[in-house]
Amino acid sequence: MLLLPLTLMIFVILLYGYKSTRKPRHFPPGPSWWPFLGCAPQVQLLRKKTGHLLLATSKLARKYGPVIGLKVGGELVVVVHGAEAVREFLANDDLSGRPNTSLYTFRSWGKRLGIVMTDGDFWAEQRRFLVRHLRDFGFGTTNMSTLLEEESQELVKYLQRCINESEAVVNMHSLFSTPILNTLWRMLAGVRYDTDDPKLAELHEILADMLKQVSMVGKTFAAFPFLRYLAPEASGYNLYMDAHRRLTDFLYKEVDDHKQTYDPEYPRDVMDLYLTVINGNAKLQNSTFSEQQLIITCMDMFMAGSETTSNTLSFCFLYLVLYPEVQKKAQEEIDRVLGRERVPTLSDKHKLKYVECVIWESLRMFVGRGFTLPHRSIRDTELCGYFIPKDVKIVGNFYDSLLGDQCAIEDPMEFRPERYLKDGEVVVPDAIMAFGVGKRRCIGDALAKGNLFLFVTVLLQRFNFSVPPNASPPSTDWEDGLTPRPKPFQVVVCER
Ligand code: HEM
Asked: Where does the record locate the signal sequence feature (predicted)?
């Protein structure tokens, strides 16, 4: 009696297993797909061998070409390598969606919310609103300049306090997270924390935990969602959810504070403005504005804006201690243009061309160690002559175009800011798409560039940075997270 259903079940499983190994026609080449697992085992093996997922897919690109087609669990994934192919990918509107996977809805009450992981009309309206009003509250304006100048001076004071005699040994990889968080949070919610404020420590801890959980390398429970029921602890699901819950609680408290004190006639920050729109639209059905959307947008801004900038600064100072001659040259330029006393402002940027080159070289070192954010094909399309069906996840690998031995940049592992100076002007090669290209381009580049310029200039004007005596030079290897970061390192800081 049981034989027939059992045989049928085995037949269906075998058929499904066989079908899961078949690739769509003209899909980008890549390793063969095993039943149910796709090529996850081969990629995982390569990742173990090379130490990073980024290097694993680069290795596959050597064999299969710049556009490779993978399957991880049940998900089709295309990884794009090399400047030309990555630019073609980012400029293709058909590839401008975001994956609609449970990883990005678990955090937001089962809905697709926020800016970074949404798409379609919802995303377009929300992005437009945010870009417009971030500008009202200072993005790219003199307000922003004043705010960044204040924060960079706070960092100088902090380092001066650390230096009790002539020098201090500082954890450089974590020095920038507080000031960068402050610049971002001041624009969004008008809040500034002092370095020793316990609320800041709380926010830091929550964010660090969350960012650890949202790695670009992927979560086991995202590729195999049933694992969140079978092994919620071991698959990382519980940790992921807990970190997000703590951040949403923190943000809800801030929204409540705003609700108690805000005046719709005089919005103080982006959060006030958002609340005004929510109240105005309260009766509208299908409004894309809601308190939940506000919370997840803030979360997105933290995720997109804090680590990116502070990790670029960490890479910058890592290379400045490894290349003391570069540090000296930048300091000489600062001395020549500003002297030791005048506080730098954003308007000095165009006069400090070598410093600007140091920043571009640091961005190359940071961006070149990572992927783009994941995209999704919103309809069937073509990329570099291959067929990309609708709903495929697609990411760009920046290693090959910025750091790999086949990239168009001379001696790519060398930190050489001069490479951008052409006849006294700063010329950045097209391959360095540090802030992306096309519809999903970064919306925070003005703030990021402003922060990078002021923090580097202010610190080099006041301090010397070097490898601690008797310590080995810090490693240029990196840790994977949501974005790449240097392995923890210390430097000696002394006043000039
Ligand atoms: C060094 C600092 C930064 C770098 C290198 C950087 C880089 C990028 C890149 C490459 C993208 C596009 C990814 C893609 O193609 O999907 C992006 C998107 C984004 N960035 Fe940035 N970013 C930085 C700082 C910031 C800051 C400070 C903010 C916020 C104030 C921010 C907010 C965003 C947002 C919201 C998106 C998503 C846009 C969308 O999906 O429509 N970023 N960023």
From this structure: 1-17
